[in-house]
């Protein structure tokens, strides 16, 4: 048996395995380098009913914005997207955490933090009735929540409702 052929083959296999492991290590390093650059925003759209000493209050839509990434994000605004247009709803939003009407932006979100804004059913309904009466949007238009940040990032949340359904909600 020719041992030089055996050891040459063994060396070639070892070199190949070493090269593959190095390539995997480079890919992992690049992914870890880029990870802090990726923003992760989670948006939820739900309903809320404040409870007072005397009973339930007016019904609200609740938009919660959470930073699920590992770097701080500065949120510049929240809109309701109707396909072509973004509806500015800042005057309709209530920030219960800060006890004020309207919502002020920009707003910094540190990692693993969130904030919620509330929109009255009746106020949003009035706005959508006006938009539908002026034929600005279609009654069957699907609505999305759009959250923007300082680096022109757009983050969407689809809502399972239409403009017509929001217009009919009275709370």
Explained architecture:
By secondary structure, the chain is of the alpha+beta class. It has 2 domains: 3-35; 39-168, Immunoglobulins (Immunoglobulin-like, Sandwich). It has 3 helices and 12 strands, in the order αββββββββββαββα. The protein has helices at 3-34, 121-133, 163-168; strands at 41-48, 51-52, 55-56, 60-67, 73-81, 86-88, 93-95, 100-101, 107-109, 114-120, 142-149, 154-162. Strands 5, 6, 9, 11 and 12 form a 5-stranded antiparallel beta sheet that branches. Strand 5 (73-81) and strand 6 (86-88) form a beta hairpin. The termini are far apart. The model has no long low-confidence stretch (mean pLDDT 85).
Task: For the structure shown, list the relevant keywords.
171 residues, alpha+beta, Immunoglobulin-like, 2 domains, five-stranded antiparallel sheet
Q: What is the fold named in CATH at topology level of the largest domain? A: Immunoglobulin-like
Supply the number of structural domains.
Answer: 2
Instruction: Give the biggest beta sheet.
Output: 5 strands, antiparallel
- C-alpha end-to-end distance: 89 Å
- Per CATH, the superfamily of the largest domain is Immunoglobulins
Which class of the largest domain in CATH terms? Mainly Beta
Broad shape:
elongated
Order of helices and strands: HEEEEEEEEEEHEEH
Percent helix, as a range, is 25-40%
Strand content bin: 35-45%
In DSSP terms (H or I, runs of 4 or more residues), the helix count works out at 3
Number of strands: 12
């Amino acid at each position: 048996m020719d041992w030089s052929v055996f050891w040459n083959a063994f060396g070639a296999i070892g070199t190949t395995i070493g090269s593959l492991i190095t390539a995997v290590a480079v890919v992992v390093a690049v992914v870890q380098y880029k990870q802090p650059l990726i923003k992760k925003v989670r948006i939820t759209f739900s309903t809320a009913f404040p409870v007072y000493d005397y009973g339930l209050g007016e019904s609200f839509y609740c938009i919660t914005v959470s930073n699920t990434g590992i770097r701080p994000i500065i949120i510049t605004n929240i809109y309701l997207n109707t396909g072509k247009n973004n509806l500015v709803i800042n005057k309709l939003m209530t920030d219960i955490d800060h006890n004020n009407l309207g919502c002020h932006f920009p707003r910094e979100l540190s990692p693993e933090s969130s904030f919620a804004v509330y929109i009255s059913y009746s106020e949003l309904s009035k706005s959508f009735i006006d938009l539908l009466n002026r034929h600005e949007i279609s009654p069957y238009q699907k609505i999305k929540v759009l959250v923007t940040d300082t680096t022109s990032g757009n983050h969407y949340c689809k809502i399972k409702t239409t403009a017509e359904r929001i217009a009919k909600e009275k709370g």
